[in-house]
Amino acid sequence: MRRIGPKITLMHEMAVTQQILSLALAEAGKVGASAITRINLKVGEWSTFEPTCLEFYFGILARDTAAADAKLAIETVPVTYSCGDCGERYQPTGVAVLCPKCCSTHTGLVSGREIYLDSIEVEK
Amino acid sequence: MKVPIMKNVLAANEVIAEELRTWFESTGIFVVNLLGSPGAGKTTLIEQTLERAGDRLRIGVIEGDIATSLDAERIARHGAPVIQINTGGACHLDAAMVRNALGQLEVSYLDILMIENVGNLICPAQFDLGESTKVAICSLPEGADKVLKYPAIFSAVSAVVLNKLDLLEHVDFNRINFKLSLAELNPSARLMELSCVTGDNLEEWLEWLNEGVYKAKQQYPRGGESRSPA
């Protein structure tokens, strides 16, 4: 039996916020921006990433970067299923994922798990 | 000025996970990502599996915990190859940690690789490890409402093990509600109700594992790429 670790990260939101910030800074660099004013992020309801927590870490991690004054704008993406039988797309009520149109159980999640960097707004 | 980006923030993890999946598939290993709360019985289920099937199936184990190698020591007593990953605070395993572990565990000859994730019903579902399948284990004392409270996990798994069935008379657990909410949320999930203490119904779990091993081998017969990606 062997051991690996430790890998020092606190809560998964911190690592993922760092990832968002790095992506945003890299893209801002590509267009020669001097500052990022806004980061538009889409976060699925079932992504397991908590917006308040992302904002908290963002405030800390963005200090002394070109995104220091940026607003982290988080849009929540609702859980959406689609039916494999009739093609209906719907947002399940509670956890019931049965197709509300044809009652099929052949349904699958199409969005609501993602965490997606949509766009940034920058100053030249 | 608005700059469109449209990038998946978890892409870095998913790239590594896909690389692992391709390799696991090419070697015909059935890889189980086992998720559940602390105390649900994840390690005990693996121990029981080793005890009952260890002589006919070659099973390796990756143990994920925030701290200590206690779980890996339990597994090692059964003679199975095991590696402990200590995440040092991180609440889930990610694909890079698994890739790193594979460098230290000889897995290419295995039938099954069991990855015991960090005990947590929230984020482990979100981090793909390249596994063949995700399994959630839940136990009676946790309460029958867990499916409703943690839909992200229970909707992402292909099987659910309901453990500690021997406590049915001693705890307030509404089995019907548990089954109904799982059927509503994830109708295709296979539910296996068992007790790792008495051994009741463990055959069903072993049979389910056997089917997985069979499928993994059928789809990708041994003899493919055997070099580990680590």
How would you concisely characterize the structure shown here?
The complex is a heterodimer of chains A (124) and B (230). Chain A is of the alpha+beta class and 124 residues long. Chain A has helices at 11-30, 51-61, and strands at residues 2-4, 35-44, 71-77, 80-83, 89-90, 107-111, 115-123.
Topology:
The complex is a heterodimer of chains A (124) and B (230).
Chain A: E1 2-4, H1 11-30, E2 35-44, H2 51-61, E3 71-77, E4 80-83, E5 89-90, E6 107-111, E7 115-123
Parallel strand pairs in A: 2-3
Antiparallel strand pairs in A: 2-7, 4-5, 4-6
Chain B: E1 2-8, H1 11-27, E2 30-36, H2 42-53, E3 59-65, H3 70-76, E4 82-86, H4 95-102, E5 112-116, E6 133-139, H5 146-149, H6 151-154, E7 159-163, H7 175-185, E8 190-193, H8 202-219
Parallel strand pairs in B: 2-5, 2-6, 3-4, 3-5, 6-7, 7-8
